[in-house]
Specification:
The protein has 385 residues and is α/β, with parallel strands linked by helices. It contains 16 helices and eight strands.
Length: 385
Amino acid sequence: MPARAGSDKYPAATRARLDAMTGTFRYENPDIIHFGLGCVGESLSAELDRFGAQRAFLVTTASAGKGAGRAVAEVLGKRLAGRYDRITQHSPVASVMEAATAAREARADVLVSAGGGSPIDAAKAAAFALATGLDLRDPASLAKARGASPKGALPHLAVPTTLSVAELSGSAGFSAESSREKVGVAARELRPAAVFYDGTLAVDTPMDLWLSTGVRAVDHAVETIFAEGEHPLPDATAAESLRRMPKALLAAKADPRNAEARGEGQIAAWLSYLLPGPAARGLSHTLGKRIGSRHGIPHGVTSCLLLPHVIRFLGPRKPEALERLRAGLGPDPAAAIADLVARLGLPQHLSQWKLTESDLQEAVAPLAGKPYSAEELLGIMRASL
């Protein structure tokens, strides 16, 4: 490849790096992010006005519905046309379709989600089902969904209360009815129209959930840096996220009612996820999805269990990425994350869930050869026991 014009001004190592860099970056996050304490009260009504929305349908969980969901409902006021508060962990597809049916019966013109990744993903999946007419409970519908376009999908305003960053992409994961396998749909039209990072609404999030989804955000940052190709902006924000998130999580653990610490965690989570597609397809995420919904392990916890071992596996294979991780985490990134998980009091060993060798083999089988062998993937799993 010929040297790029002007690159001769730089030292040889920098010239080589500039000459090798090439790519195209496309923003995949929502267009509007509101952040800061009290931003829901200040800006949610204006977002509803932007869409001319008069019939908002609220998707939440039983627990979040009593905290953030209640606060959001108060802001919605007379525009609250209905709600569904029975979404549970991993967004079971039956609940997704119940929410979609309830939203249709309420004649909703906008969806509002409040809570963690499960209600946010459920709202996205419900919007997809309503726009396409597909019943996502039907296994055959997933094949149809790959070619379906959710044009005209209801706008979705997301108020996250965990650090899972489901609100930052157009993909929606949910668990299948019979197998409990994690499946999903994806389209740019499913990205929330606006996101609200309001730390005051996150202080009631249970601490274990907050901290484990914070480690999930750390995982997003790591997977971003490990992703194939050149992505200078996401790499820079991911490295900044890795610097900020541990302090934010430790501050929240020390003072659970500290809204500023919760807000700082939300900002750090946002910075972790400017490359949502490749990050979500990273090795830690992919392995975690294979064991999470099937064995009742929360998403954030799978990151606690697997991420240090994934770094030890990938680091020698991707030395440049490892150097970027060191900029945010110190000389031994895997040890730094394992130490953070321990300081946060989160699970560190997969053996707690009593998975058998057969379970591990079943988990890695569909991933073998893409591009790592089954034995290599089993090595990561076994190291986490």
